[in-house]
Amino acid sequence: MVPKGRLVPVLAVAAALVAVLLYRAPFSKSLGGEGCSLLPHDHFWIASDRVVTLGRVGPAAVEVKGGLINAIAVGDYRNLVLRRPLLDYGDAVIMPGLIDVHAHLDEPGREEWEGFSTGTRAAAAGGITTLVDMPLNSFPSTVSEETLKLKVEAAQDKLHVDVGFWGGLVPENAFNPSALEKLLNAGVLGLKSFMCPSGINDFAMTNSTHIEEGLVTLAKYKRPLLIHAERIPDVEDDDGLDDELDPRSYATYLKSRPASWEEAAIRDLQRAMKDTEVGGRSEGAHIHIVHLSDAETSLELMKDAKQNGASLTIETCPHYLAFSSEEVPDGDTRFKCAPPIRDGANRENLWKALLDGHIDMLSSDHSPSAPDLKLMEEGNFLRAWGGISSLQFVLPVTWSHGQKYGITLNQLASWWSEKPAKLAGQKKKGAILPGYHADIVVWKPEAEFHLNDSHAVYHKHRNISAYLGKQLSGKVLSTFVDPELQLLICSAYNRMRNVGL
Question: Which residues are listed as membrane-spanning (predicted)?
Fold first, then answer.
């Protein structure tokens, strides 16, 4: 039986304290299709020969008490752990639960695309224990205190993992510090903006001036601005697409959204990035570039900005690391996303940048839609909705494709847990350490499986995922989420504490 939780209500603690809305759900999920089960204990141990903790991977047992990690017994835990119950997972990997800072759950308003119940259930099935919902694709978009309340109400009793929310930076609030502060005080973890048309009517694009003004307000709260960094250059290289180009060809779509769009956006952000340096106008604010696709000039510009002291992080997504444009079949619009999947050489450069630490973290950018919007029968890349449906599969996809590059379990934990937790301001998440939330995934890296019709998929619409039919390794066995409801309280200066309810 799937446990139904409830959203923690906004708690009026004091004028300077605001609720950051995260739900804590009792959850242990098996991918075998048996459903979910509650562990009837608030004090237990889980153990294996491969626990990712304390900068190492090795035998250990983790004591969970009252929803938190209480202690870690390293080494020959079978002789150390005398208390029961003990869940011994043998040689399976025990790792911090994944934190996905970029997912679109589309509720309220577009439940037919995806919703909190299906989205968070798919997240749990994939080892994700916390996700942060994007402010657009739902209707209305989350751009004000009032629209955030609608989002919270829509999530009531539907969540199976922890969920937080980003708010939107749009032209209507960018020059209104009071409106932004109300949104931040209402509980969003940071803001998100688009530098090109978003495809959503009530989420307008911003320019660098909007962004620079928004960063001034964010600096007071020490929360990040996430930016979709594509900008249509003022002068294009050519007159546009040839009308005779085949819209079913992925090469046509790739030409319609070249890497120069990403480069133009990053160049336009150079002053904003400089403002985040020590002594800058927006010192204390942070810029996070979402779903980087261009591993050439755009990346080099950001590497320079980081080296010069900008407060800047970069994410990319598993679909940019798993696929290349040459491999996308004609008419298969499941692969359409923005920015586009680029060529194989670019993919290699993305992997190198990730391994070298220039790209900081990974996210799903789970962006589903109703199946008819993907135009899969027509196969028109120029008209189909863009977005990769991936939430449940990101751990095995990252692992399966990363083995070629020798990635380690510690790197996985850094890209998917530690650094995303820091971005979202969650100081007690992202690691298996005493005092941290007991958010844990147990999985078998060597276990191979085929994403065929018999595989249990919990997304709203399984048929729109580009990963269907793929052979992957890395099967999630169980996902644990702290069984206690907790409310994370975030002050204007990002001091965090837990309030037991």
Answer: none
